[in-house]
Amino acid sequence: MRWALAVLLAFSLRAQVPVSSYRVENVPLPRGIAPEVAGVTFSADGHLAVTFRRGYLYLMDPKTNRWRKFAEGFQSPLGVMAGAQAGEFYVAHLPELTRVVDTDGDGTADLYETVADGWGISGNYHEFLYGPVRDKGGNFYLSLGLSSNGAEPRMPVRGEFTAKGRRAKDPKGGTVGAVGHYSPTTYRGCSIKITPAGAVELLSCGFRQPNGLGFNAEGDLFATDNQGDWVGTSPLHHVTPGAFHGHPASLNWAPWFKGRDPVEASVEELDRMRKLPAIQFPQNDMGGSVTQPLLDSTGGAFGPYAGQMLVAEWTYPRILRADLEKVGGEYQGAAFILVESNGLRAGNNRIALSPDGKSLYTSQTSRIWGTSEGLQRIVYTGNMPMDIQHMRLTKDGFELTFTKPVAAAAADPANYSLTHYYYKYHLIYGSPKTDVTPAMIRSVRVSEDGRKVWLSVDKLVPRRVYELRPRGIKGRDGEPLCTVEAAYTLNKLLE
Fold it and tell me: What is the pLDDT of residues 191-203, one digit of tens each?
């Protein structure tokens, strides 16, 4: 009932979306196979490759649209990436990162090779493995989900085991209640680096369920996480060596935490340590469970958002986008809805741009909680949407860049509703929007070409999400603005 109410509330806020700019199409799947598509990519020779949650890797020939089974035997393969040569793939599944290769050219894999498996497994149902992505130096990156307090470890476990981080301290003595998700074995709730030699290294910790990794245009690594205990709303994190992203359970594996039990750290101490999310997606209004971030590297072939990150969303039938910038040496920025509904299903888990850059393929899986399944593609029609392309911070407000010149109504402050709020950082599952406060827009200035608008805002406050809801704005050609919401995560002010 709670989930259904959230869905109803979210869609009651919806307005026009760019349906004339992005067309959603279903992609037929192989016959006789459960359509739980968990991963998608394109091979070096242009074949579409998908993994199915029940353990298969299939390829589709783009010339004939015919499928063939390429490999099998994987355990919940939630990610796949192509190798440098045709017939080579890397599959991330629960026990390991596996390289599969067709060495004899017969169209199916005959070599299965373990790249790395140096992390813990306890048999807990919540212990998913995400990725892989690879940098220019040949290093792979994966992220690992925590264990759920709804299930105990099944001995023997793989990796180092610890009972730390399981129970919260009672100030009067003893313990109270489970802490939520926990990290009983090596690197659960962490991001890890795998060197070209196969060595596994801890990269960062503090994740709950980091279902997605991706690089931006500068080669910096980002990861999504999902709302829950210690995670007020679904975020996008900039991943850096030694970072703590907020969930304390995986501090079990942080050498600098010096063997302490994570439950001994106060909220204030944890808050001082954590690296703030680069972007927080407003829960339900935008994200429910965000998944893979993917750089739009198409140079405009997929629309006017080149250089931004496209972000898949599992709970709702949406694809989001993240417009990042650096302020004070750290990433922050704005979140938008790119595509919603219009035939798009929910359950979007992994996304991949087609070789020509004109389509975004999205794989959909129910995992274990139930939603849509299958494979779809989102095709850019070439019709430029009337949208807010960028939302950037200024010293006294925000600069909006539009995809098309705006009409005179864009100069009226009454056509912009702006509020700010924050999400609580605490053990409790999720957080409401807290201290929701109207932000007064003192003035609006429009550039001569109509492509930029500057909002002067009274008293910007750091560590807040600024939510913008424009209304009544059209392009000079009469097309209504399709943006219904933009949310800027303001961690730091410009100096």
Answer: 999 999 999 999 9
The residue with tokens 């009932």 is: 1
In angstroms, how far is CA 56 from the centroid of its own chain? Answer: 24
Of residues 18 and 37, the one with the higher pLDDT is 37
In angstroms, rounded to a whole number, what is the distance separating the alpha carbons of residues 389 and 401? 5
Question: Using alpha carbons only, what angle is made at residue 146 by residues 314 and 371, rounded to the nearest 5 degrees?
Answer: 20
Q: Is 10's pLDDT higher than 60?
A: no
Q: Which residue, chain included where needed, has tokens 């993994």?
A: 51
Is the CB of residue 57 less than 8 Å from the CB of residue 80?
Answer: yes
Confidence of residue 11 (pLDDT cuts 50, 70, 90): very low
pLDDT of amino acid 407: 98
Find out whether 38 and 373 touch, Cβ atoms under 8 Å: no
Sign of CA dihedral 2, 8, 28, 60: negative
Could you identify the residue written with the tokens 């730390």?
A: 164
Contacts of 12 (CB under 8 A, 6+ apart): none
Q: With bands split at pLDDT 50, 70 and 90, how would you rate the model's confidence at 312?
A: very high
The amino acid at residue 208 is R
The answer to pTM > 0.85 is yes
- Domains defined along the chain, listed by start: 2-116+126-139+210-380 (2.120.10.30)
**Residue 102: C-alpha distances to residues 72, 89, 141, 215 (Å):** 13, 9, 24, 28
Phi and psi, residue 436, nearest 5°: -65, 120
